[in-house]
Known about the structure:
The chain is built from 4 helices and no strands. It is mainly α. Helix 1 crosses helix 2 and helix 2 packs across helix 3.
Amino acid sequence: MGWYESLVDSIESVGRGIDRAVTGTIDVVGGGLDSAIDTVKENPGKSAFFAAAAVATGGVALAAAPAIGAAASAAGLGVAGGTLSGAAASSAGLAAIGGGSLASGGGGMLLGTQIITATGAAGGAAVSGSFLKMQSK
């Protein structure tokens, strides 16, 4: 077998591995989605409260993202951490939270903002879920 056939076999093997991983993930997510839908059907009021809390806290986190980015930069996060102020500090902090600038291969300010927003929404969902669990006892 030559190098070309070996390369093709390797690529096919990787493709089969990816296919198995994706198929397995879809099966797991599909089962979890069915369970989530059943829970929402059984508890529509609680589910609405849970969703509203997640949206509200995610929105607050989105609005606060520039300030959080500036605080992260002031705390020394990122290359120029602690040396910038204003919009530059906010941008640098958000980029640092996002894994670095786009030019350096990171996710940039957009990913930093998304991480902050998702964290805020997840926090709100967790707190509201805990509240609802306490109320149901």
